[in-house]
Amino acid sequence: MIPTPAIAGVLTAQQVDATGAAIAAMQEDSGALPWFPGGQTDPWDHVESAMALSVTGRFAEAEAAYDWSRRHQRADGSWPIRMLVGRVEDPNVDSNFCAYIAVGVWHHFLITGDDGFLERLWPTVWSAIDLVVKFQRPDGAFRWGGDHLTGAMFDQAQITGNASIFQALDCAIRIADIVGQPEEDWIRAHGALGEALRERPEIFEPPSDHSMDWYYPILGGAVRGRAGQEVIAERWDEFVVAGKGIRCVDHRPWVTGAETCELALAVDALGDTDDAIALVDSIQHLRDPDGSYWTGLVFSDGKRWPVEKSCWTSAAVVLAADAISRSTPGHGIFRDVRQSLAVGG
Hints:
By secondary structure, this protein is an alpha+beta fold. The protein has helices spanning about 15-25, 45-55, 60-70, 95-100, 100-110, 115-130, 160-180, 185-200, 210-220, 225-240, 255-270, 275-280, 310-325, and strands spanning about 40, 80-85, 85-90, 95, 145, 155, 240, 245, 255, 295-300, 305. β5 and β6 (about 155) form a beta hairpin.
């Protein structure tokens, strides 16, 4: 048994467990974890939701989700960008979506210590990351995606996706070391991407008005320390709405639970745990009695929007609670990302 996360004065262990149960209740028979019952499944949010199942001790359900990923991976190592109850809605490839399987698999292994699980999912991780590194440009940035039918790549490199790929590469390299198949090309790709994110941010698409482009370089682990604190401070007042959460888009009166909890994970990784606690506390107005969370709130008129309780929003709450409380062996999955690695080291 692993301890269930709790944040004193914010969330009890029983409440976090209820959120895990709400996520499990949304899981399809196939193992897929859609955005909400009957909604779309994408390979990134599916993995994030599986991670929350692991945190709450629902190992069978989490492994069913990873087995869904294993079964639905295409021959080239990719997954469709979007599926709907098993039907492909968007067949194209998103490099970040494909990379995130490494984060989930490493996280589940940290919590369970199950070598058999790691061995079973290693071919899936290897195929995905082997594909993803082909999207890296000579300047170190990763193209965001490509056309699955023609193989053509879309050249734009987006900050949020690249920051997430940085974490995924670190996790994939850890898995490769454990299974005894180190991948030096992945280490080089990780190093070039980290350098690009820290030293040449101008090579990426300009930061959008979405909050993710602000905090993801810290969440993904490429930027830390004083530099990370300066990044967070620069736009804090632009996005954070005291007592309500953070804006998803800087100029709209709309706060979202997932982005708020991801920012909590980012500032916790910088050592600002009090701010992380306050952020998670601020979005408890989105909590439903069944333990799930509404996606967001338009605070100018008090209306929930979109009118859905998203699986991945609940997952972000669980992951933030684990990071803050240091409860499970996977609590450092965002905090412990390595900024640099040496080939052969």
